[in-house]
Amino acid sequence: MVVKEQFYVGYRDVDTLLKIKNTAILNIFEDIAGIHATIAGESLKTSDTTWVLTGYKVNIIKRPEFEDRLNVYTWSTGVKNITASREFEIRNQNDELLITGLSTWAHINLKTKRLEKVTQALIDGYTSEPEKTNYGITKLPKLVEPENYLYDTTYTINWDWIDINKHMNNIYYMELATMVLPEDVRDANNFTSFEIMYKKEIKYKDTVKCFVAKDEEGYTVTIKSEDLSEVHAIIKLKT
Q1: Measured between alpha carbons, how far is 144 from 217 in angstroms, rounded to an integer?
Q2: Which domain holds residue 80?
Q3: 174 contacts 194 by C-beta, under 8 angstroms
Q4: Mean pLDDT by 10 residues, the chain (239 residues)
Q5: Assigned domain for 139 exists
Q6: Closest CA relative to residue 118, chosen from 198, 42, 61, 63
Q7: Do 201 and 57 touch, CB atoms closer than 8 A?
Q8: Whole-angstrom Cα distance, residue 237 to residue 58?
Q9: Are residues 50 and 69 in contact, defined by beta-carbon separation less than 8 angstroms?
């Protein structure tokens, strides 16, 4: 099953150059994934189970701009035991491919907060399309923490970044990573791809440290707990 929806790139979605922000791309992905889940019989209003993200890989061929109307597609490429993979495409009104995305997920019970095996009914509901892929994989390779960093920044998590799971929403990991980049890099917004590996949830009022590294491909932001004992996420942005 391929789900298609149309999205409009609005004022809040773009930067000062009127180009869509990475967080807005992830917002679109989150929304259409939720639409697919509801169609498959796993609405947050009625289901005791849901999915948590474990990773993203996104390639940006051409960055959409303000007032663009986008055709967005998503489909499951595989559901097995407690894990799943999902791909996305964003195309313009001329059917030009602008962005592709691959995401990986873990299945949890909302009441127990524990991992839960996917039922056959849900597997049938999602109707995977394993042959339809832009990536040819269903499991993302682990991102490796850089050995050296340019600098680090401390940040305390706001209440409005928290979602229904009482954790920081996955989109705000990218928001946080973008905020701590050098100002000229952030303002240019010329990233051609990015990857995110989610490792440990962040909660309201948690204080985290964001470590910024640079290499020939771009920047890597590692988000750690204040005492450095936990890695919450690694975000790699290629320019």
Answers
A1: 14
A2: 2-126
A3: yes
A4: 98 96 98 96 93 97 98 96 97 98 96 93 94 96 95 96 92 96 94 97 97 97 97 97
A5: no
A6: 42
A7: no
A8: 10
A9: no
Q: Are residues 19 and 91 in the same domain?
A: yes
State the pLDDT at residue 164: 86
- Is 145 exposed, middle or buried, given 0-12, 13-18 or 19+ CB atoms closer than 10 A? middle
Q: Retrieve residue 222's tokens.
A: 């590692």
Predicted local confidence at residue 165, as pLDDT: 84
Both 45 and 83 in one domain: the answer is: yes
Instruction: Please tell me the distance from the alpha carbon of residue 59 to that of residue 191, in angstroms, as a whole number.
Output: 9
CA-to-CA distance for 169 and 172, rounded, in angstroms? 6
Whether the model pTM is above 0.90:
yes
**Number of structural domains, the chain?**
2
- Distance CA(70)–CA(148), nearest Å, equals 39
The answer to whether residue 67 is domain-embedded is yes
CATH number at residue 224: 3.10.129.10
* Residue 217 · residue 238 · CB < 8 Å: yes
> Is residue 178 domain-resident?
yes
Q: How far apart are the first and last CA of the chain?
A: 33
Question: What is the rounded CA–CA span in Å between residue 23 and residue 7?
Answer: 14
Q: 137 lies in a domain?
A: no
**CA 151/CA 102 separation, integer angstroms:** 30
* Residues 38, 82, 101, 181, CA torsion sign: positive
109 CB neighbour count, 10 Å cutoff: 14
